[in-house]
Give the backbone structure.
Amino acid sequence: MTPSRILLVEDFQPYRRLVRVALEQRAGLRVVGEAVDGIDAVRKAQELQPDLILIDIGLPKLNGIAAALHICSLVPNAKLLFVSLESSDAIVREAFRAGAHGYLHKFRTQLDMIPAIEAVLAGKRFVSGDLEYGDDTKLVGQHGLLFYSDDMAFVEIATRFVGNALKADGAAIVFATRSHRESLLQRLKEGAFDIDHAIQHDTYISLDVVETFSKSLSKGMPDEARNTEVMNRVLQRSLKARRSEHARIAMLSEWCALLCAEGNSPAAIHVESSGTDLVQKSALDILCPYPVTTLHRHNDGHTFKSICAAHTAVFSR
């Protein structure tokens, strides 16, 4: 497989060296050049025709936003991944208007850089770290992939995802581990949701992910018939329970993340590939949370790219 060619644009030499070393240790990625200011970035992008450009915003001579506008017209096939200390929603939006495919917060470089690169190379949008989800990045009508750093981050995003569906007269389905289900339930109760009523009327269905899906595996791979039966049975309950026929169902599932953690990434990729089809056929939004530590174990890049490619958007928290 031909390595993806990367141009690194960063004026702070220690950070540039740190990123280069990390990328050179990753199979399938190759740094083909470096630039230290915006004008140099435009020139080298046109000269080298890289697959991906990691570019800071606060560059000398020509800032990253302005440089990106030039690069998009000169090298339209290159993917742009902004790497910056700036974290305001306005700056993130401006970066995407300038042609960005992803936005990586520098404070989360160690956790987010590889997921961000793989997502962008797979043609997906990536938004990093503690950045807010604005209207342009909301998880609606999508098969979303979430890389989370710890359990607190998981519960925070899961609560928002599930809560938004319940507030919009929809329903929520949660396939998660016992600890995550309990933490999510507690957080929803703290948020003044009448979860007991929601559980009683099937607008909130929470199931143990392993107990639900373990029997759908055959020789380590998903059995399509069994998996479809499980999903349809639960989904039909939610569709009937929602208070509005136009309201959407929020489905959160840790099944693929657990498969990946166990080393069964082929099964995880197989299951994820059917998720987008399900979203398109039903009034359904899917969020698939993966701990960053699990995917960092897969150093060949194939798992990252395949999982990212199976989703419509990629986020990190």
